[in-house]
Write a structure and sequence with these properties.
Blueprint lengths: L1 H30 L14 E7 L17 H21 L7 E8 L6 H9 L2 E4 L5 H25 L4 E2 L1 H7 L1 H5 L5 E7 L5 E2 L5 E2 L2 E2 L4 H6 L7 H8 L2 E2 L9 E8 L8 H15 L4 E6 L3 H12 L4
Length: about 300
């Protein structure tokens, strides 16, 4: 009997002590200052921009590619981007919808019909206008309209280059970066940059890069990296802060005959995007769309 009474008393004391400790712990927590915790997770709203380089790199007569013409590869890349956009939307709640995709050509084509087709690709889904059927039409629309765009450019046969440098300087901030979005710029280009009305130099920094420039400055041998570093070759800075932009460059296609040309092109681009503080970027060599599809999906859907 004494043993039972002792157990009851011990249990009561223990429980009473635990309550005191719990109250004390709660009081300590209440005394601590409240700190505001801000979310660091990236936005789930996509703002995708695509810049097309419609220079003579897409000319099938000048640069034939028996496996698949380069303009056809571009169309395949565009379809992969559009399908990735669709996948993102189909796995998102309707109430959260606020996603954009658009296409740019710089300089703008003179053909008003072509401009109209580019405008038709500009799409903005919100909870008000979204439906499963409208989402699934995106890749179909991108496929048919992009074919018309490339056909018109090739038939016109008036290649004036692509002002990628000028696009970064004058348009990226306004057209491709929106607050509250994950901003992605996809550039379809062979890696060279040239436009007849935007050819500028600041020492060995330029607004352009051509095979002729690479050869002229001795960047065509095993000493190319040393030459670039010592003489500060590279693109002129076009923007100082693109920290809210991600860039995916697809289709890099160095001229044959210089085994270092691809490395030079990638170094030019990397140095340029780094100095402009681009948040994230990838530079990919031209390949068949079937091989590039996963790379494009992983980048846009942010898969590690």
């Amino acid at each position: 009997m004494k043993t039972k009474i002792l157990i009851v008393i011990t249990t009561f004391i223990s429980l009473h002590s635990c309550k005191k400790d719990a109250k004390a712990e709660t009081a300590e927590k209440e005394e601590q200052p409240i700190t505001e915790v801000k979310s660091t997770s990236p936005s789930n709203d996509l703002n995708i921009s695509i810049l097309l380089d419609l220079s003579d790199r897409i000319n099938p007569e000048k640069y034939p590619a028996p496996a698949m013409e380069y303009y056809q590869r571009d169309i395949g890349y565009l379809e992969s981007v559009a399908k990735s956009f669709e996948w993102h939307l189909l796995h998102k709640k309707v109430i959260q919808m606020d996603d954009k995709i658009q296409v740019f050509i710089d300089p703008e084509p003179f053909d008003p019909t072509l401009n109209k087709k580019v405008g038709e690709l500009k799409t903005h889904f919100t909870k008000v206008n979204v439906s499963k059927d409208s989402i699934l039409l995106v890749s179909e629309k991108f496929s048919s309209i992009s074919r018309a765009i490339y056909k018109a450019a090739i038939d016109d046969n008036n290649y004036v280059g692509s002002d990628i440098w000028g696009f970064f300087k004058n348009k990226v901030d306004d057209y491709c970066i929106d607050d509250g979005y994950r901003n992605i710029l996809v550039i379809l280009t062979d890696g060279y940059i040239f436009h007849k009305d935007a050819k500028m130099n600041q020492g060995n920094r330029t607004s352009y890069l051509t095979p002729q420039w690479i050869d002229k400055n001795g960047l065509n041998n095993g000493e190319w990296q040393k030459q670039m570093d010592e003489k500060d070759f590279g693109f002129m800075v076009a923007s100082k802060d693109l920290s809210h932009l991600e860039v995916l460059v697809l289709g890099i296609n160095p001229n044959k005959g210089n085994p270092y040309e691809g490395d030079v092109i990638r170094t030019y681009w990397s140095k340029w995007l780094d100095v402009m503080n681009v948040k994230k970027y990838e530079l990919k060599q031209a390949d068949l769309p079937t091989h590039m599809d996963k790379i494009i999906q992983d980048f846009i859907l942010n898969k590690e």
